[in-house]
Design a protein that fits this description.
heterodimer; A: 512 residues; alpha/beta; Rossmann fold; 2 domains; six-stranded mixed beta sheet; globular; B: 306 residues; mainly alpha; two-stranded antiparallel sheet; 1% strand
Amino acid sequence: MAYLEMKQITKVFPGVVANDNINFSVEKGEIHALLGENGAGKTTLMNILYGLYRQTSGEIWINDKKVAITSPKEAIDLGIGMVHQHFMLIPALTIIENVVLGMKENKQILDLKRAASDVCAEAAKYDMTIDPFMETWKLSVGQQQRLEIIKALYRGVKLLILDEPTAVLTPQEVSVFFTMVRKLSEEGHTVIFITHKLPEVMQLCGRCTVLRHGKLETTVNINDVKNKQELARLMVGKDVEFSVQKTPAVPGEEVLSIKNLNARNNKGLPALKNVSFDVHAGEILGVAGVDGNGQSELVECLTGLRKIDSGVIRIMGVEIPKLAARTILEQGVSHIPEDRHRRGMLKDMSVKENLILMNYFKEPYSTKGFLNWKWISGYAQELCKEFNVKTPSIEEKADKLSGGNQQKFIVGRELERKPKLLIAMHPDRGLDIGATKYIQSRIVAARDSGSAVLLVSTELDEIMELSDRIIVMYEGGIIGLIDDPQVTREYIGLLMAGTRPQDSLEWMSPCP
Amino acid sequence: MAIEISNYISMAIRSALPILICGIGLVFGSRAGIVNIGAEGFMLIGAFMGVVGSYLFSSAWIGVLVAMLSSMLISLIFAYFTVTVKADQVVVGMGINMLAIGLTTTLFRRLFGMNTEPIKIESFSPLAIPGLSDIPILGTSLFTQHAPAYLIFLCIPLASFILFRTDIGLKVRAVGEHPRACDTVGINVFKVRYGAILFSGLMAGFAGAYLTLGLLNFFVEDLMAGRGYMAVAAVVFGKYSPVGVMLAALIFGAGDALQYRLQAGGSVIPYQFLLMIPYVLTILAICGFVGENKGPAAMAQPYIKE
């Protein structure tokens, strides 16, 4: 019998069936992938297993015993641990405080020193050294993830759920991470690996369960799967075109030029250090780098959302740092922001209202301060059609749309303005393959029609596929400029981790 | 001169005490992510019920006990609305304050009548610590205080220890930073927040009772004069730690005592300006006079379980 069996699990949220009669079983010691597009119900299913949600119907069996998991506490008692996509660590506490937090074995007066030595011993087994009394906010993302795993192990986890664990890691960190997961499995831990990345499933997992639209598609042995195309077909339900069609770039005049840009982050620490580069019309410049190496600050400086300390930013020859955000946008800049909920849309307003945020004050959107709703409705309808936004109506609150459709209307709104410069940050974060490919092809189309594109992404595959040139950011500086299409992802991965390879490579010219 | 200094220090400490007692409770509430504007109302209830308790049972200590229990009861209402119903903490706090003013005024008139002479209550009298109180200047000011004063100063290291070294303190701090993370490790966020609020209520009741039974020896309608808000300010000023709150409260107390001294000494400054001293200090404290001061990350945010 299987170690874990989830039988006929159904979870209904108001208006949505997130899990529809799903059967899912995992053997002891295996690494089992849970594959599916966004919204397929993977995380919901695992949140049920971890006690964060209660299933509407269905049973959970562990070691042939039926269990009722109503809260994470019970899940932890059953030896289930979960590393969430957004880490559940408390930045203000120390590492050891994070590890012991909430453990029922804790004495009323905490003996953190003893706990620290136990945790260090546990960490050493996986070749990790940690300073248990360091504050957690000082850790890199990769370290935080390992801390999450240590936290689970310290609680005696037998079944570990990893929710999209590689989304935030560099290629090198991913390989360290894989080694750790393999070791866990060798020691008899069972691992459930939630992902939508096919190569990782092929590389790491023994079996794979595929969910689609909340339903179980199938469970397959990875050995029986020929290639990732086959997995993709299972996941999406149809053949998937992996590569975006793209012709070589024909760069035109210089659109964006940045010289020796310096700026600080929200904590007042230097975030951008002497950044210089330029982007020309008709090319896509990819900005690669691990999250938090100055990319957000760079984009904010360009869009008038952050003060700069020194340096020059010119868009079409106009110096922009002193200009208001709207004036910058009026220069022909479009911005697809990093966090669509925070900066891309107003979630309580309708799709229609969201589509005119940049233009409402202009003819023909409004006349003498009064909005032309009739004209706007027609415009919004056309835009939604053009960009495949699936919404019951243009009056629907933006919040009610799926992430993919929200992103599509933002991309539509920005591209419709025929930008001279398009700044796109994580344009397809959290989107499924279909929506991703669609948005990528629209960005390439914008390039082909003469826009200069600055594409910021932490997804190396996306950067490599779309960019004509690539810069890599590390700790606020540009560590490498790459304009050779033959460069390997391992090489860029090294740069992302801050290592500048010693062998001089002709195609790599370090920036001043 | 020596006597004047001694009196001044003594007065400063006594003025600081209600703010300090209330502030210790609020530290735990704030650390758990609760902005408790209602402290003013909690304290007023305590001030009134302390008088009632002392009047009925002829014991200041029983007065304190009654005050603590009454304020805790009121804080339960606050907790229900902010934690369970997830209403805005500031709005509920203001509501509690208005309720407290109305409730104490009505009950006071009902119980003690409108125009009677001051009611006779048992209050705390100074308790000199033998030996220590004979030290010149500081002896009389530090060691001739009311019994609750000694108790509170002893409580400060204890509160620090609980907050930073015990399991329950860790939970309180964690809940104020990242309630969802706490939920995922099996902590009942609601329980912790209820506990922190009830403790704040308990201490606010104590503070109120000390105000009427130790400092003023009477009750008049609406006598708080913003001391509850000053306690909230002291928590921010003191960077959310018990020791910090103690220092902040002493600074406020010093301001208050200064105001009395200058008034009594016939200062040329109009007394209205002198009265402002403690409040100006409060405003400076809140306006980041202390430099960058980050409170708990989940401050004032109700926790909504998915």
